[in-house]
Amino acid sequence: MNTKAPSGNKVTIRQLLNMTSGMRNMDENGSSLEGVLKNGLPQYQLPNTSDQMLEKFCSMELVKEPGKEFDYNNADFIILGKIIEKLSGKSFEKVLREKILVPLSLTNSGMLTQNTIINGLANTYFYRNDIKKLVPDLPAYIENWYASGAMYSTVDDILKFSNALFGGKLLKPETLKQMFSSGLGEYGLGVWVYLDYKINNKMYTIIKRPGSIMGAQAMLFHILEDDSTIIILSNTGTVNMDDFAAKLADKIME
Question: Distance between CA 168 and CA 151 in Å, rounded?
Fold first, then answer.
């Protein structure tokens, strides 16, 4: 890893992938709705290139020893995106299209920017407890999430991706084995991995990838032994995706 901070010589790519980098969390000032409504989200509400995001929010000093503690940090994925660009000599978006979107025919997926109109893209909303109603999401530059979440997609496209991933068409078996090895925080490499997940009194291995940016929520829930996949997309922040997916899994495995 290469950043201006000393962490650049101490944190490995694997530690970025399994969220044990030990870097200060770039979203720590957005941990509560009250704080966000009062102070905003400067890392997302001001225009920044991916290089500026790397310099401003992903080059902090270490606050923990790398590899010792799980802490989900968007900064880790932003750094990984910049590493891909450095190694490939291409933009992250171009690599994404060449390696995944085009080969899998994901025609309704891509990187999202504030100045791009996507036909059929849903507006997103979150619930304000203080005024007891849904409101539009806070204004933000979605591209600031970069490799950590600045994408749009559909259920059909995500299913194509899921089938390719779990079908061994994207990664080698040994790489998948590493990806699905549960570590600190029950997290593998980019996904949560639950080795003893009870569904209707039986134990299964669950590979789970939730996502949430304000009112935009997503869930990919895969039952490894049954090769069943649950995909949920929502444009409000009012549903607990973990609970919803668990209830659907109960029905699937009856």
Answer: 23
Spatial separation of the C-alpha atoms in residues 208 and 151, rounded to whole Å? 18
- In the block, which residue shows the tokens 């025609």? 107
3-class SS at 58?
coil
Residue spans of alpha helices (H) in 24-104: 33-39, 42-45, 50-57, 74-88, 92-96
Compute the distance between CA of residue 34 and CA of residue 123 in angstroms, rounded to an integer: 22
Burial 39-60 (b: 16+ CB within 10 A, else e): ebbebbeeebebeebbeebbbb
Helices vs. strands in the chain: H and E counts, helices first: 9, 8
Please give the C-alpha separations between residue 161 and each of 105, 222, 231, in angstroms, as whole numbers.
9, 12, 11
User: Six-digit token pair at 217?
Assistant: 């929520």
Q: Between helices 50-57 and 74-88, what is the axis angle to 10°?
A: 130
For residue 128, the 8-state DSSP code is: E
Q: What string of pLDDT tens digits covers the 254 residues of the chain?
A: 445 566 668 999 999 999 999 999 998 865 567 777 777 888 999 999 999 999 999 988 899 999 999 999 999 999 999 999 999 999 999 999 999 999 999 999 999 999 999 999 999 999 988 899 999 999 999 999 999 999 999 999 999 999 999 999 999 999 999 999 999 999 999 999 999 999 999 999 999 999 999 899 999 999 999 999 999 999 998 999 999 999 999 999 98
- Name the helix (H) or strand (E) containing 242: helix 241-252
Rounded to whole angstroms, the Cα distance separating 27 from 157 reads 29
Residue 31 C-beta-side C-alpha neighbours within 13 Å: 6
Q: Which residue has the tokens 């990664």?
A: 171
203 beta partners: 198
